[in-house]
Amino acid sequence: MSVYSRLSALGVTLPQVTPSVALFVPFVRTGRLIFVSGHIARRNGEPWVGRLGEQITVADGQAAARGIAIDLLAALHTATAYLDSITRIVKLVVLVNSAPTFTEPHLVANGASELLHQVFGDRGPHARTAIGVAQLPLGACVEIELIAEVA
Amino acid sequence: MSVYSRLSALGVTLPQVTPSVALFVPFVRTGRLIFVSGHIARRNGEPWVGRLGEQITVADGQAAARGIAIDLLAALHTATAYLDSITRIVKLVVLVNSAPTFTEPHLVANGASELLHQVFGDRGPHARTAIGVAQLPLGACVEIELIAEVA
Amino acid sequence: MSVYSRLSALGVTLPQVTPSVALFVPFVRTGRLIFVSGHIARRNGEPWVGRLGEQITVADGQAAARGIAIDLLAALHTATAYLDSITRIVKLVVLVNSAPTFTEPHLVANGASELLHQVFGDRGPHARTAIGVAQLPLGACVEIELIAEVA
Questions:
Q1: Fold of the B36-150 domain
Q2: What ipTM, to 2 d.p.?
């Protein structure tokens, strides 16, 4: 079953990738690795603003992380033109906008890891670091960067 | 002198690596690089909870970082089956759970860097980034991720 | 136009790279990648201390980020002996010492990205993650790490 079939079965439509500004880009390929820029959580096209441990629940944080994973897939689709050429999701860094008391960034991160597992199967399990940070661009509740390996 | 002899001389016993959950894994190898997941500080098997600049001293933070380095070695041992096949510790990111006034995450990081130097000798010196963060998984005082190069 | 000519046209002189301590080093090369350690902002040779959203303005943060980019170039020059052998700036992680209300780390990051674009042209655009963090080594306002690809 192809990655695209799995996305379709999950009802996931990949968004358009925002055209690159000149200064930095959504991804860079070097050798067999694709480094994808940190992508922030969005809802209805706007930054999904708030902080875990304050306005944002763990469940909402997980939904935000899942949404980012879809945006990361869209970047990988643009990078490869064919998601099934990805041989491994190598690593995720999951940055969670956290009140100083919020100690569950790893649960938030699961929202992204689960989607990647559903879509990539055996190629999905990745190394991962989850971190609670002081703030994120535009006040977003979650930001995720990714490294993938291509054939 | 092999890496295992040095560990033995230091009185260090490598712990068992926690079996992977399905969603993410302790490490991923791609080409000659091994990306090891962020590992949190533990003491007596439990998360070592607290914040630098509050309950945790620099000395305790260094001990926590050293303990994580041992866990990272255990992951690398599992990844390679033979630690002497590691040709270089490439990079560490050291995340320190910090009160907003704590400005010495680099001193905490030395606890991990020193152990890697003792164990790997010339192959030990690595690129490094030390950061003070708002929180970490389960309230741990330190979290470290690592990249290593294998033969 | 060579990278050195562009630096000269910008009036930028590369600083001396601080000699490595034994424990960690300014950069590690592995295969075609150079991982450069997190470098903190400096002004007149001293750490540029402060927090965005408090004492440090966005304009000053951008100047600090630009200054770090110059230090990163000095590290890359030491690593390669010839900056024109760099085929791509792969990735930046920009860590901004942030008050909990400061939501523009990406604007601060532009200070570094712009310089790299000016100096490297088509080889300059990189993947990037900008993060607001609780603190940084020595209280610095910005810290940046970099990955570059060499020929």
A1: 60s Ribosomal Protein L30; Chain: A; (3.30.1330)
A2: 0.94
